[in-house]
Amino acid sequence: FDVVDRLSGQARGTRTLSGGETFLASLSLSLALVELAGRAGGRLEALFLDEGFGSLDASSLGEALDALTQKAEGGRLVAVISHLKSVAESIDKVLTVRMTATGSRATWISADERDRLLAEDVERGLLT
Questions:
Q1: Is the distance from CB of 79 to CB of 49 less than 8 angstroms?
Q2: For a Cys-Cys bond, which of 33, 34, 50, 77 suits 46, CB 3.0-4.6 Å?
Q3: Closest CA to 21 of 38, 40, 39, 7
Q4: Torsion angles phi and psi, residue 122, rounded to 5
Q5: Cα within 13 Å of Cα(70), Cβ side
Q6: Is the dihedral of CA 74, 106, 51, 45 positive or negative?
């Protein structure tokens, strides 16, 4: 595969892409497959994304999350694994996983709990 850089109009090899560009290219291909499956009469009911968001700038992150939100609003399950609190901030249902002395513990948190955790991180200087 080559990627056409819209700024320069030149084709680039995939090995020249940054981490963020690679993630956006992968996300674009995934969303295109969903679209192609729909046009062929099929339907992909779920999208699962594991990380990658940390390599994006704020603008690209917003665009990626908007695209995923549109898929979710279209009736698809969109599951995102991320360590970025800014991703959790824009997701309706958040499942947190924490390590405990007896193993990992997963719990669903409410929007209020999510906002409280984000506020605590801001207070500690972890987020701006």
A1: yes
A2: 77
A3: 7
A4: -65, -45
A5: 8
A6: negative
DSSP, collapsed to helix, strand or coil, labels residue 34 as helix
Q: Which two tokens stand for residue 97?
A: 């996983």
Instruction: Kindly report, residue by residue over 10-29, the tens digit of the pLDDT.
Output: 999 989 988 888 888 888 88
The b-or-e profile of 36-52 (16+ CB within 10 A means b, else e) is: eeeeeeeeeeebebeeb
- Percentage of residues in the chain with pLDDT exceeding 70? 98
Rounded Cα–Cα distance for residues 21 and 94 (Å):
26
Position 83 scores a pLDDT of 81
Helix spans in the chain (H): 19-39, 58-73, 85-89, 111-123
Nearest to 12 by CA among 1, 3, 21: 3
Tokens standing for residue 73: 């609003």
